[in-house]
Write a structure and sequence with these properties.
269 residues, alpha/beta, Rossmann fold, two-stranded antiparallel sheet, 10 helices, 20% strand, globular, binds S-adenosylmethionine
Amino acid sequence: MAVTEASPAPDRFDPGVDAWLAGLGLVRDRVRQELVRRQLVAHLPAGPEPLLVLDAGCGQGTQAIELARLGHRVVGVDLSETLLEAAHIAASGEQEDVRRRLSFVAGDLLALEDGHAQRYDLVCCHGVAMYLPSLAGAAHALVDACRPGGLISILTRNRAGIAMRAGMTGDWAAALDAFDARHYDNRLGITSVRADEPDEVQAALAAAGATLVAWYGVRLFSDHVGQRPPGRDFPDLVAAEEEAGRRDPFRSLAALTHTIARLPLGRKR
Ligand SMILES: C[S@@+](CC[C@H](N)C(=O)[O-])C[C@H]1O[C@@H](n2cnc3c(N)ncnc32)[C@H](O)[C@@H]1O
């Protein structure tokens, strides 16, 4: 495992780091991570060949570690030294072979060095695009890092989910404001976070050269709940969330949208 020098690029997520860390392992985080994992793994090749994966904005490394446990080699890139350190600590509890497949590198996914170009079989970017200046810029950066024929997995904030959460918590004024909103102040204390519609994500990926494979909703029934640990009903909750996430109209109202796209085999940079 390697942790290198941090990039000086501004990180819009930085004010939310402590609150994000405090929420790890609680029910909303666990539902999110488990759904993303299941939805993604269903699209990975079943064969023994390990993939080379980029986890762009890997944060504390949850998905990077899950993928390394499956045998894949994963490079996690993030701007936050604090979260890279958390990833490093989490990975240090893994078995030696899993640890060897992981590396964590400080850097800006929007300014990756040329060595990353067209390199990865799978490029993940989960819960990051809403903090980046544009969806188009994010899509281009992810596509640039992906090899022809490779997969992209991107988790974005869903615009309809803003009003849903406000309404489900009984905050009627916020719900009314949210119907036409593009931005919102999130629970981590980060202001004016962008939320995108599923077809906008698909259009941005298509414009960058990637073809839609599937899209899912993530966290519909449990998005409004408070910060509490998973209860005994967690497996049933995840099963219900997974079902809602894969079918209309439920997936359109979830807090997050998980989009999986593929680059054509013949694509040139
Ligand atoms: C909500 S956390 C998500 C962490 C992880 N991907 C997950 O799903 O659990 C957002 C992460 O994006 C990182 N981030 C934000 N902008 C970034 C950028 N331009 N390049 C790399 N990482 C970035 C933040 O530092 C933070 O770790």
